[in-house]
Each structure stands twice: as C-alpha cells, then as structure tokens.
Amino acid sequence: MGYLGKLNRQLGRVKHLGLTLSGLALLMIVGVMTACSSSESSQSAQRGTGSMLIYLRQADGKGATAAKSYISKLVLRFYEGVDDETSGEQSESSSETLLQKSAGELLFTREVSLSEDQESVLIEEIPAPQNYFIAADMYMSGSESVYRTAHFWATVLVGQTASTEAIGADVKTLALSEESVSVAVGETVSLALTATYQDGFIEDVTEYAAWSTTDASIATVEAGLVTGVSDGSCEIIAEYGSQELKALATVTSSPGPTPTPTPTPVALSSIVISSSEETIHVDDTVELQAKAVYVDGTEADVTSEVTWASDDETVATVTESGIVTGIKEGTAHITASLEDELSGLVVSEPTAITVNPSSDLSSIYISSEKDTVRVDETLELKATAVYEDGSETDVTSEVTWESDNEEIAVVTSGLLTGLAEGTVNITASLEDDVAGLVVSEPMPITV
Q1: pLDDT tens-digit readout, 356-372
Q2: Are 71 and 139 in contact (CB under 8 A)?
Q3: Which of 6, 48, 140, 367 is the most buried (most CB within 10 A)?
Q4: Rounded mean pLDDT of 12-17?
C-alpha cells in the first residue's frame, strides 16, 4: 500500500478513537494537513520534522475534581504506529493491551508543563514523515502520580502541523453499584459510581461525582454515603461528566428494643417457717426463716417481707426480721403472714418455741463433719453451749472463734479457711453472766 494510502487510513482511525480525560479535560489533536504535490515515492523519501498542536479544554462534566485541580503536565510517549487492520478501532482493552496491539518501538518522549488557564500546547521538531501511536500520561496539579493516560494515532508530515477534528465526549457509560437501597432511620448505606471511558479505561469516580437527593427530609447523601432521616422513599442522583444515574432509597424506622415480657403473677400457696432451735433459755435468742411456696412449685425467701407474730409475748417476742427472744419459762407460737395479690393474706402454720428457765453455762463444744480441709477450701464449724440443766443451744454466731496459727488456717463466724499445710487448734469462747468466760476444748484441724 502506498504512503498516502496509509496516511488516509490513519486519519480515519483518529476520527473513531476517543481520547480520555476523566471529568477534567478532553485531549484533542488539531491541525491542518496540506496536500502534497509531489509523488508518493518522493514524499516517502523526504525526511525532516513536523509539529503537533494539542488542544486542552475543560469537559462539561460535574464533580469534585474539576473544581480542585487541572492538568499541569503531559508526558508524551511516541511509538512507531503498527499498520494493521484493527488498530484504528475503538478498544475496550487496558492501556497495556492497547500498547501491545497498536504500538511498535518507542521512538522518543516529550514532556511539557501546563498552566491552569492554558488551552493548547505545540509540540515541535517531531521527526517526519511518520505514523505515530502516542500515549499521553496526564498529571494533575499537586500530584506526582499519573492520573490518566490517553492513546491516539497521528501522522506527522515534513514541515506541517498535524490536526484532526474534535474528538467526542470523554465518559462512555456510568454504572451505580445498586439500583435501589434500603436503610433504617439513623443508619447509613454506601453507593459506588463507576465510569467507563471511550478508550475502555474503568475508574471508580464515587468521590468525584456530584451527589444529590430529591428529598433531604427522607435521606441525605455525601460522596455516595446515604443516611436515612425519616420514613419514606426518594431518589439518590449521581452526576459525572454529562451523564447522571439514579437509585431509589427506601427509609424505614429503626426497630425499637424488644420489650421485656411482663412476668405472669403466680399465686402464693403457703409460707413455711424454719428454725435451728425449738428450745431456748430465758434471755437467749434464735433466728427464724420464712419461705414462700407458690402454686407452680417455685420457692422464695421472704423472711424480711413477712409479718412476724408471737401468740404470747410474755413468753417470747419476735422482731420484724424473725429474731425470737425468750422472756420467761413457757411455750410461744410464732407465725409469719404475707399479703398476696392473687391469694390474699397467707399465714404460716404456727412454730412452737419453748423457753426454759435461765441456767448457768456449763461448757461449749465444737463439732464439724470432718477434721481435715485442703488449702484454699473451707470447712463449716458449729459451737454448741451446754447448760447445767443439760440443755444445749447453738451459739455458733455468738461465740468468739480463734485459731492458734492463722498462717495455717483462719476462722470467721464458724467458717474455717485453709491457708497452708499443717495442723491448727480451733477454740470457741462465750462470756456468761454467772459462769464468766467459758472456752471450748481445742479442736484440731489438719490442712
């Protein structure tokens, strides 16, 4: 094929290939090609230089990038143009694939700096005649990284300035990550916007797009982040280049906390009184406990909730907390009552407490289920007072407990705790009005 025939093919290719500048600029090659009066052979033989005029104009896009920066530098890589039947068609391939298909040997590189209001740049002293495939790396102001790369073909003739008609719009298509979103009031959901350019380059332009909502009282949007404001539906609009897309946003009220179910009242069946002693001496005390039994079989300690009563307070009295005190010899019956919303007033069966005459304390003895305990474990001890009349009373909570070696074991209110290996002797003492201080026999405990 003759040289002019190749030239005509290259001009046709430029008219079909879109150059890309994302939302900022559209790269166009403009010039005038003069008719050549010499023959094809003489034109091919003549070598010299030509020039290329590159126009830059702001695209009609909307978005954050256009307001922030401009093309401040171009690095132009001039490759030998590959003469094949498909190189002039638009390509959806990557930059690397496009170079492989359309570019031959890298011939030379030119770098030019641009001002903010510059609309064109003239590249001179370009070897001619030559078919070129050109890769234009674009740098934005304030950045040292390549923002985009545009690709195009051009034929430069000796003594001439290359030109073509204006190339079409930059962005080919836009795509939203979702066509509709649902979000609760006060919650957020994100949308992403992707642009595909004429040369097949694909870019996430979420942060560069202009986002808006048709009803900010229902949902707001910023950089693709949709926030629910109130119940309802509205459209979220994303604009970039000369195109826009919409997504339907549906906002619903946030579900409130699951209400705690109100327990169903259960009727009280009975009250049961328990006691560690049924016999006490005058001026001695015993503690009673009251237990509520409900119709569903559940139980609860209601000692502090019931009303305590003694049928003969001259023999024994009882406090609000269930403490019975012997007053004189005889027997008193203690009851506990509780008002229930379903069962009404429920009264326990009477518990008999016998009060014996006051008797001098004779001795105290300590008892336990075992006489050994492991380190860090506990053992429960019980102190019992023996009176001269032979009666006995539990005085565990009244005596003073002592350990003869607190490095091995300690005891509090009858509860012994092992600390280290060894054997200790535990004693319990009680001050009596008549007998004075009465001390138990030591009880050996092995840890």
Answers
A1: 877 778 899 999 999 99
A2: yes
A3: 140
A4: 38
Contacts made by residues 110-115, CB under 8 angstroms, sequence distance 24+: 110/75, 110/76, 110/78, 111/73, 111/74, 111/75, 111/76, 112/73, 112/74, 112/76, 113/72, 113/73, 114/56, 114/70, 114/71, 114/72, 114/73, 114/74
**Contact, 50 vs 36, CB < 8 A?**
no
Question: In the block, which residue shows the tokens 């001496």?
Answer: 281
Helix (H) or strand (E) holding 3: helix 3-16
Please state, as a whole number, how many other Cβ atoms lie within 10 Å of the Cβ of residue 210: 15
* Cβ neighbours of residue 380 closer than 8 Å, sequence gap 6 or more: 368, 369, 414, 415, 416
The closest alpha carbon to 304, from 322, 286, 329, belongs to 322
Residues pairing with 156 in the sheet: 130
pLDDT at 202: 74
Q: What type of residue is 123?
A: I
What is residue 95's DSSP assignment?
H
Question: What pLDDT is stored for residue 124 in this prediction?
Answer: 93
The residue-averaged pLDDT of 383-407 equals 90
Would you say residue 77 has pLDDT above 70? yes
Query: What are the Cα distances from residue 108, in Å, to 76, 86, 133, 186, 209?
Result: 9, 24, 11, 57, 36
> Tokens representing 198?
């004429």
Q: What is the largest CA-CA distance in the chain?
A: 149
Query: Residue 298: exposed, middle, or buried by beta-carbon count in 10 A (0-12, 13-18, 19+)?
Result: exposed
Q: Which helix (H) or strand (E) holds 382?
A: strand 382-387
- With the C-alpha atoms ordered 287, 433, 359, 435, is the resulting torsion angle positive or negative? positive
**Position 229: which residue type?**
V
The stretch 100-108 carries a mean pLDDT of 84
> In one letter, which amino acid is 240?
Y
What is the distance between the alpha carbons of residues 17 and 14, in angstroms, rounded to a whole number?
5
Distance CA 50, CA 130 (A): 9
69 pLDDT more than 90: no
Contact 280, 393 (CB under 8 A): yes
Tell me the mean pLDDT in the region 113-121: 82
Tokens of 95: 């930059």
Note whether 398 and 428 are within 8 A (CB).
no
pLDDT of residue 391: 81
